[in-house]
């Protein structure tokens, strides 16, 4: 059976499209995954510095002090910095921090677009540094945090990651 001209052209076009998708899609997927993984690595780094701050001073930085407090030379009697510099996400944007009365410590990244919500590279990533032991209902406490944030930087936490016990895991879908 021999294909006519337009059928051959259609077959060649489909084949070329599949080959191109096979070459381009892994590149796009790998870059998005890589950028997300870098943010996750930074979350761990910031979480460890915040834990050391708590261990040395008895408290996390308050919201006014924020993450910048980790780079201060003198912190509540502790001499030295917890971090030499604050990391930025893959797109050169800052990470955000919120301390809800020492009960919930949340870090987040607004992604490539620096706007709440988004998809793919612009998707918000949220990281739970600390959840106080008596916080049995995580989603209620995360919602309490989110209602206290300025709308311009309030993340859409569809996934919340946690570094508790040095295991990076997905906590809950909201």
Automatic annotation (TrEMBL):
UniProt-listed InterPro entries: Pilin-like (IPR045584), T2SS_protein-GspG_C (IPR013545)
Any one Pfam family match given in the protein's UniProt record, by short name: T2SSG
Residue ranges constituting the Type II secretion system protein GspG C-terminal domain according to the UniProt record: 37-125
Lineage top rank: taxon: Bacteria
Protein name: Type II secretion system protein GspG C-terminal domain-containing protein
């Amino acid at each position: 059976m021999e294909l006519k001209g337009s059928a051959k052209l259609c077959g060649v076009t489909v084949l070329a499209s599949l080959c191109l998708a096979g070459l381009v899609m892994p590149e796009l997927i790998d870059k998005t995954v890589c950028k997300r993984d870098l943010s996750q690595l930074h979350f761990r780094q910031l979480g460890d510095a915040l834990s050391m701050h708590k261990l040395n001073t008895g408290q996390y930085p308050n919201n006014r002090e924020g993450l910048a407090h980790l780079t201060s030379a003198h912190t509540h009697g502790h001499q030295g910095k917890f971090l030499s510099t604050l990391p930025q996400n893959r797109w050169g944007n800052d990470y955000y921090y919120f301390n809800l009365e020492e009960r919930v410590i949340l870090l987040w990244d607004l992604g490539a677009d620096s706007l709440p919500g988004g998809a793919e590279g612009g998707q918000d990533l949220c990281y739970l540094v600390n959840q106080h032991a008596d916080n049995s209902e995580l989603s209620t406490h995360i919602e309490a945090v989110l209602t206290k944030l300025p709308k311009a930087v309030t993340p859409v936490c569809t996934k919340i990651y946690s570094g508790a016990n040095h295991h990076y895991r997905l906590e809950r879908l909201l």
